[in-house]
Amino acid sequence: QVQLVESGGGLVQAGGSMRLSCAASGRTFSTSAMGWFRQAPGKEREFVGGISWRAGMTIYTDSVKGRFTISRDNAKNTVYLQMNSLKPEDTAVYYCAAGPTLIRRTARDYDYWGQGTQVTVSS
């Protein structure tokens, strides 16, 4: 019943910006946390960052700090990933996930996942 739907992916040149959205339905996640993950071909799924729905507290992996920003709109049950100064190394399928009370860095701690959206950064 719970669904997460990512959108906003596509092709962008290095140095450009892109904003991803994750819309949740079936329930609210106002007391939970949301994580963003990414996975490139042949690589493990990597934690990008996360947000506490209620407080708006965010954490990020070191490689995206200062470039990516996560925000949320609790009324719309939607989380955003703003990506600036994109690099070719950011190319991956990006997923949003939800479920834990606190932000977690491992995929196994999340109960619900979106279908993913492709982000390709060209040089």
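The record above closes out task 2.4. Task 2.5 opens with a second protein, given below.
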Amino acid sequence: QVQLVESGGGLVQAGGSLSLSCAASGLTFTPYTMGWFRQAPGKEREFVAGISWSGGDTDLGDSVKGRFTISRNNAKNTVYLHMNSLKPEDTAVYYCAADLRNRGVATMSRAYDYWGQGTQVTVSS
């Protein structure tokens, strides 16, 4: 069964850094694009970052450009989100998701086929 598990969330002060990981199982022989999304209370789910299977294509949401980066290690079946210069408005539950159909990076949540349970990131002022 396909499973995505996020880790690395926690508390951090504004201006600090944090890195998240997403470990995938059940997708070893299937190329997939990975996306990171986040959702704060009372708000819609928001695209954060995406990376193609080869790593050749990446995309970042407007609110995180210049601060976040995305990378992957396919040998470890793991995708990472590196967050720098964190702001209180970055506080949210962060989800990773796998897209098995589209070659490039999609920014709409409906494009993704599998989702993790999420990890909480809280940034204090």
